[in-house]
Amino acid sequence: MSEKVAEIKGIYQSFGSQEVLKNLSLDLYKGENLVVLGKSGTGKSVLIKCLVGLIGIDKGTMTILGKSVETANENELMEIRKKVGFLFQSAALYDSMSVRENLEFPLKRIETNISKSDLELRTVEALENVGLLDAIDKMPSQLSGGMRKRVGLARTIVLNPEIILYDEPTTGLDSITSREISDLILSLQQKYNTSSIIITHDMPCAKHTANRIIILAEGKEIAEGSYEELANSTDSLINSFFKQ
Fold first, then answer.
1. Which of 22, 116, 160, 229 gives a 20 to 30 Å CA spacing to 239?
2. 29 touches 195 (CB < 8 A)
3. CA–CA distance, 240 with 189 (Å, rounded to integer)
4. C-beta of residue 106 within 8 angstroms of C-beta of residue 155
5. 3-state secondary structure of 55
């Protein structure tokens, strides 16, 4: 296995008296797509939000690209987040901005001295990578759900992240569009050697994109392996994910 780009050791996280993550540990390796499966409420989305400091943890350690997350101050968290792309479930586009402006906004904010020509080049390249250059001057309201997801992905990769966190990237999409998004995830992995954590309920997406899968139940990891290994498990709980 190649070098670790993220390492989680024994983390706990709770909201009030409700424990969401319980002594969870996992590693993410360079160039790997790691899929996290689990029923609703098992802490999958909470996990990736903890990884970039959007939600705090109660106990444990998290390291991203050699930097400690749980002890980082706000400036250090910002430096970590520059290297970690986050595709939200809703794509989270700014509805008052065009597609072009949605991509330019994070670039201008993070790379304050970027030239106009570089801004244009990076924006065009990111949209070409998701097959949506012809939508550059459209507004989000003019786009389908699948197109919005692809623009959200373009906005994620425009900053050249080393790690991408996908929160339910195919939710709400038809099977053909879901496959297109899964293909894009693979394409970006291969083109940029990105490392990704993919939170999904979509088993075709998991099968298509995963190098490795972990399954969470009640905030704990209950299984790890390839799609084929887990699909052939004799454990009824593990097997239930693959018999949908």
1. 22
2. yes
3. 28
4. yes
5. coil
Q: How many CB atoms lie within 10 A of CB 139?
A: 16
Query: Encoding tokens for residue 53?
Result: 């400091």
Residue type, 195: S
Contacts of 200 (CB under 8 A, 6+ apart): 35, 36, 37, 166, 168, 169, 170, 206
List own/partner pairs for 116-122 with CB under 8 A and 24 or more apart: 122/158
Name the token pair of 19: 């424990």
CB neighbours (10 Å) of residue 202? 23
Q: For the segment 161-210, what is each residue's pLDDT rounded down to a tens digit?
A: 999 999 999 888 889 989 989 999 999 899 889 999 999 988 999 999 99
CA distances from 62 to 9, 10, 12, 58, 233 (A): 6, 9, 11, 12, 30
Residues, the chain, total? 244
> What angle (nearest 5°) sits at the alpha carbon of residue 234, between those of residues 229 and 238?
70
Query: 14: helix, coil or strand?
Result: strand
Radius of gyration of the chain (CA): 18
Give per-residue pLDDT as tens, 25-68.
999 999 999 999 988 777 888 999 999 888 999 999 999 999 99
pTM given for the model: 0.90
Distance CA 216, CA 27 (A): 14
1: Cβ contacts below 8 Å, ≥ 6 apart: 29
What are the residue ranges spanned by the domains of the chain?
99-160
